[in-house]
Amino acid sequence: MKKSFNPTDIQQKESLELSKKLYRTIGEQSKQLDDARSCVFNVCDLFAPALRSQRRKFCDYCDRLIFSDPLLYGRKGEELLWRKGFYDVISMAKRLKKKEFTQEEVSSIQAHIYSGIGFYHHMLTKLSIQFNIHLQTTVDCKMLLESNVDPAEVNDELKEWAKQTVYQCLIYLGDLSRYRLELKTKNSDPSIAIRYYLQAISFKPNNGMPYNQMGTLAMYQNNLLDAVYHYLRCLACKVPFEGTTNNLQNLFEKNSKFIEQLPRIDEDADCIVEPDKSDNIRRFIARFLLLIDIWYFNKKVPKVYSLCHQTYKNLEECLTYCKPTPSESDESSTLDMVPSDPDPSYINGQMIFKAIVICLLVISKLQANNSPSLSTLIAFTLSIYSQLIQKLCRHIEEAVLNYPTTESKRSCGVLGEIIKTGKKGSKSKLRRRKALIVESEESDASENGYESDSSSSDESYTSSNEDVLVETSDEDIESHKQVMDDSQTASAPNHTKDKQKGASKNKDFVLRKVQKMDINIMLEIINEEGLLQSIRVVSEWLKSDKDIIKSCVATTSTLVKQLVQLINLININFSSARSINLKFKVSKIIKNESKIPLPEDVTLKNIRLFELAQAEYDWDYLRENDITSREENVIRILKILSFGKILTKIEDTGVTFDETKNILIFDEKDWSAGVDSGHSESCLIEELERQEETEVVNKPSLTNGELKSTSENHKMKHMGQLWLASEVRALETRVGSTKATLSPYLVIDADALIKYTRMVKQLVYSRQFILLVPVAVVSALDDLKKECIEARDAIRWLEAQFQRGNRFFRAQRPHERAAIPLIKYPKKKDKEMHVFIQIIECCYYFTDQQKGASNVVTFLMGTLNSLGGGDNKEFSYGGLAKSVGIILESITSFYAKWKKNMGTNR
After folding, report:
1. What residue spans in the chain does CATH classification 3.40.50.1010 cover?
2. Which among 274, 273, 230 is positioned nearest to 251, based on CA atoms?
3. Sign of the CA dihedral with 433 first, then 435, 439, and 440 last
4. What are phi and psi of 624, to 5 degrees?
5. CATH class of the region 745-905
6. Can you tell me whether residue 758 is helix, strand or coil?
7. Exposed, middle or buried: residue 576 (CB in 10 Å: 0-12, 13-18, 19+)?
């Protein structure tokens, strides 16, 4: 029977023949390009007009081949296009480079890179139109157009090929942008390359290659921390990149060599060279990465617990370093978009976040392998989590205690609404006030003041804010008593109970004040440290692994107590959402909170530890809603508050909700019995190491089920013991391991502020003392500002510090003075004597509060020969100070003693 005529068959046959012809032509062109490159002797020859024209034709042929028969020749055409058309040219240019590229060579390479970026953008547009792929929500390219192709005309196989090609195009765009960075031009910006890699991740989240490329890009950022973060994230993907394991091992080997070169500190040396901030951060990261190397590749290293403790203490010190710019916030909506510092002097929120994610990624791997090291890693991660919570809580408390509020009806937060749906907090409008030094013309009566937004600048401190200060003066002093209790041991039998009672009273006061703070100010305070993302990520993990919370409760109450404290501190009232310009209603967010992902959730998408927590997320929410950073922080706070709800539902946590106060309550009456602080640090570490060795020896004799059960039991036991060891060490550090005892309160004079500002700043930033500026000193600075430029600089610095709020550095309050007993005040007081007596009265107030305690206050002066240095006919300056237990010392000698003391402790 004669075959019927079919035009479609003829078209397909012609198309196939055309594709074969194109493929042969491309093969010939590829050989010609290779031959031409082999004859090149310098970079400029690579970009000769003839060679450029030949490459352009080659790229056009590849483009026609790819779209003429995608299923048969698409993959091969893509590889040839990238390799011969773009990559080989850049690779050859690098080999031909002598020392540095000349300006002409840089221009030629840049033009080649830009042509490649334009070509792949064109290809993305073509793919989206011809194969009906919607890229508008994934790729931020304005050239993309809506497809007018009927989806039914594109079969599944073709669409899958097109999606893979889109993914490859985004990788190539990222690579080209990365190569441009290597030219080190003025407009180099790593965020452009990162943007393309992140788009590739968004398009195919299961593929790990973009993370590998970002690891290569971040090779010299944050002392290898960023690179390890990206490589581990790549290996956690379902389709990891093959070469990433070798890349990671090479980084760890480089890190180990650095640790071996670290100088050992001789504790008995006469002079110890103190490392600077950058060196200390580098050491912390190096030790942290060494631990990750040990755990990830299951290496057997002795004394791993000692390394854990050393790393923990390194981080504790690094977290005390202040931001270079106080007003600068390091938290970004897209964590990978902001370039990192190659050698940072401050640990920012991004670095902490990456360290936390690294720990969680390794935990995920060890859990899958039932590794015996899992318990140690979990305990170490929770110890970092505890540090972050403590740091954020301290920051909030300090800022709130030093920030004035107006008297208003108490406004409840949203915790009750989360725990009991339908319950709404009362609304209140709060005014923001600024803390300033009032430069009064009356020098003798000049006092530290706060200026209301609606009041005049010369309004006195006492008259404008007496209602606030009455509340603060009685309650806030308890917080300073806590510092005294931490600095020196007490012999009174009821000391512990009094301390706990005072701490509880102080925390209640802070919580009351939080509810009176302006919402905008509270959001700024909470976000200043940039730790909310890291804390929230660990909280999400704990939500899905409640056994870890139970193990913490069974061994020590510290972590649960800290969590309750943080949740109560961030329990702000969002009912007046209009005052913070939010686009949504908080009540609606509370109902849908479990469905709204945040940028950190996108970062941790498809990680096994978070599969349960992210099961309900609507991943299109971020693309469909333009959420500001402030709104993100509100959602983070709400998510952490919802974690508090979970704590109340877990049995035996001791956490309950107080409806009348709208706060969480932690009942710790049964927890102190199980804590034995008599163990030495070395004994605890050795015991933990022996248990780990025993666990490894016994492992082969167990079945899989028994092994899992034994691993869980050891995890609980190890975590508790490691936590206890950490608590004992922290207690030893706080209570008196120093050779020289230094006063917790330091009072400074005008001379010290003017001549030794650097030393004063160092003492403030150390957060080891409470530095006080008496009213008389402010008055003295005010007198000197017209004739001394240093005095004006000191006043400006004081204003900036007092505005920001810091519990460790503040001005004298009106009630903080006490008359000196058994002393007859001179009838005729010259100005210098009058200032000195006022300062001593301020010092005596704090000494009198700690009756029976010695070395409470040290009065630091610029020079002993200045104010209070000599004797007067009527009385002795030095004798007056000594009579009330106040130490007079020059700031230079105290600073030297403190620095030496710091070196001894290390």
Report:
1. 745-905
2. 230
3. positive
4. -85, -20
5. alpha beta
6. helix
7. middle
What would the two tokens of residue 628 be?
């500001």
Q: What is the pLDDT of residue 877?
A: 74
Residue 448 · residue 461 · CB < 8 Å: yes
Determine the 3-state secondary structure of 879 from DSSP: helix
147-161 as b/e: b if 16+ CB within 10 A? beeeeeebeeebeeb
CA-CA distance, 698 to 861, in Å (whole number)?
Answer: 64
Report the C-alpha gap between 489 and 678 in whole angstroms.
Answer: 16
Structure-token pair, residue 519: 């919402």
Q: Which residue has the tokens 């854990």?
A: 308
Burial label for 131, CB within 10 Å (0-12, 13-18, 19+), is: buried
Q: What is the pLDDT of residue 903?
A: 58
The reported pLDDT for the residue numbered 42 is 87
Architecture per CATH, 8-221+239-250: Alpha Horseshoe (1.25)
From CA 839, how far away is CA 464, in angstroms rounded? 24
Rounded Cα gap, residues 362 and 607, in angstroms:
11
Which residues in the chain show pLDDT less than 50? 1-2, 5-6, 267-272, 325-333, 406-410, 422-478, 480-496, 670-692, 695-702, 706-709, 711, 715, 717, 720, 724, 727-739, 867-871, 906
State if pTM tops 0.85: no
Q: How far is the C-alpha of 206 from the C-alpha of 238, rounded, in Å?
A: 5
Q: For 545-580, how does the pLDDT look when each residue is reduced to its tens digit (9 = 90+)?
A: 888 888 777 666 688 889 999 999 998 877 655 556
Residue intervals of the chain classified under CATH 1.25.40.10 are 8-221+239-250
CA distance 415 to 567: 9
Q: What is the predicted pLDDT for the residue at 404? A: 60
Q: Are 548 and 539 in contact (CB under 8 A)?
A: no
Contact yes or no for 743/769 (Cβ under 8 A): yes
Strand-strand pairing, 655-658 and 448-452: unpaired
pLDDT for the residue 873? 53
**543: enclosing H helix or E strand:** helix 532-543
Q: What is the 3-state secondary structure (H, E, C) of 784-845?
A: HCCCCHHHHHHHHHHHHHHHHCCCCEEECCCCCCCCCCCCCCCCCCCHHHHHHHHHHHHHHH
737-766 core/surface letters (b: 16 or more CB in 10 A; e: else): eeeeebbbbbbbbbbbbbbbeebbeebbee
> 228 near 358, Cβ under 8 Å?
yes
